[in-house]
Design goal:
Number of strands: 12
Largest sheet: 2 strands, antiparallel
Order of helices and strands: HHHHHHEEHEEEEEEHHHHHEHHHEHHEE
Shape: globular
CATH topology of the largest domain: Tetracycline Repressor, domain 2
CATH superfamily of the largest domain: YbiA-like
Strand content: 5-15%
Helix content: 40-55%
CATH architecture of the largest domain: Orthogonal Bundle
Radius of gyration: 24 Å
Distance between the termini: 60 Å
Structural class: mainly alpha
Strand order of the largest sheet: 1-2
């Protein structure tokens, strides 16, 4: 058994989350997550910290004795949570037993406690109206903390995120809100934003901008077009990317009524946050903020919801429908908002949306540094923008 699998197994045995292991070991959640998912090699120093937190020796995490002794001794199939799982060794059997024990004995209690705490915190926030006392900081340079147990935080990531009946599809890559931008209709704000990276007065940049314009999906615009042309990104891009993003989002607000109406529908004193907890790119701390405790809580509630659904299927009360199951899991995740603290990021995207929301509600315009944008000589489809 590999070290990463032994760590996962011990977590299950102790009923610990990756977030809790991060807290006990002093190793970041992101590092632990990448190690367990096989995306990062573990160093000796990190291994020692994790072993100590799990009450194991380094040798116990490193040695592969289970594979050597039991690899050929135990084989078979076990049905659990509606799936037939193949057991290839004693180690894999032991791992499954730990998982079953945790998910049948500990997880239900933990999930119910999370749901109760979330409800209690929500009621306290609603009653106290603490957000009225919170200074919503829209300054670019600050790194703020947002306590979701004390204040009404509206965090978004994907198009399925929802709160109080409002779908929080505010992400740059989310579709459904086309807008007119300097003579062209963009399907996503991601494509318009990326055009700023390739805004030099060259035929190559002009070609890339048209590629971005024709991309209907924000994710593919980034992965397919941007990543293929990294060498052509402006060297001074970081100096004006925040102001350019603000300009693009404000253009989206003016150019799509559905988007602006949705942004106005969020409470004025709500704290808007881009949730970048599970995003590990370098820009995640720039555009968003992380709440690892919330993510861990949602994972537990989602898994508990899935197991309860599968139990009803086994009892013959319902027939399994994957689409229905996915909807229930997402609804369970969307119900949990009032756990943990958002920290470790500038939350530029949340601040941009907040500036735009204030402007929409007050009938004004957000303060955009047009002097900086003019100074940078930004070309769009061969035209110099004068703003």
């Amino acid at each position: 058994m590999e070290t990463k699998d032994k760590i996962r197994q011990q977590l299950l045995a102790l009923g610990l989350t990756q977030s809790k292991l991060a807290e006990l070991s002093g190793v970041t959640f992101a590092t632990i997550n990448r190690i367990i998912n096989g995306k990062q090699k573990i160093t000796d120093a990190v291994l020692a910290k994790i072993a100590n937190a799990l009450n194991l020796t380094v040798e116990q995490l490193e040695q592969d004795d289970a594979k050597e002794v039991f690899e050929s001794d135990v084989q078979g199939y076990i049905e659990y949570d509606g799936e037939i799982r193949k057991v290839k060794s004693f180690a894999s059997l032991q791992k499954l037993v730990y998982q079953i024990e945790y998910e049948t004995k500990k997880l239900p209690k933990e999930a119910k406690e999370i749901i109760a705490t979330n409800k209690k915190n929500k009621e306290a926030i609603t009653k106290a109206k603490r957000n009225d006392l919170f200074h919503i900081n829209t300054d670019w340079d600050s790194i703020d903390e947002y306590d979701a147990t004390q204040y009404d935080c509206w965090a978004f990531k994907g198009a399925d995120d929802e709160k109080d009946g409002i779908v929080l599809d505010f992400g740059n890559q989310c579709g459904g809100y086309p807008f007119f931008f300097h003579g062209h209709t963009f399907q996503t704000s991601e494509s318009a934003y990326l055009c700023g990276q390739f805004s030099k007065n060259t035929e190559e940049c002009k070609r890339i901008q048209y590629q971005l314009l024709y991309e209907r999906n924000g994710y593919t615009a980034k992965k397919r077009v941007k990543n293929a042309n990294q060498n052509l990104i402006r060297s001074d891009w970081n100096e004006f990317r925040a102001e350019w993003m603000l300009y693009v989002i404000w253009s989206k607000c003016k150019g799509n009524k559905d988007f602006s109406d949705k942004l106005k529908s969020i409470p004025r004193n709500a704290i808007i946050i881009e949730n970048s907890t599970t995003v590990y790119e370098g820009t995640s701390i720039y555009w968003g903020s992380k709440n690892e405790e919330l993510e861990a809580a949602r994972e537990k509630v989602a898994r508990y919801t899935e197991l309860q659904y599968l139990k009803r299927v086994r009892q013959g009360k319902i027939k399994k429908n994957q689409s229905e199951l996915n909807t229930e899991i997402q609804a369970a995740r969307n119900a949990i908002h009032y756990i943990g603290i958002y920290s470790g990021g500038h939350n530029f995207m949340g601040k941009i949306l907040k500036r735009c929301q204030f402007a929409l509600l007050d009938g004004t315009e957000p303060s955009i540094n047009y002097d900086l944008l003019r100074q940078k000589k930004i070309f769009l489809f061969g035209e110099l923008l004068t703003f």
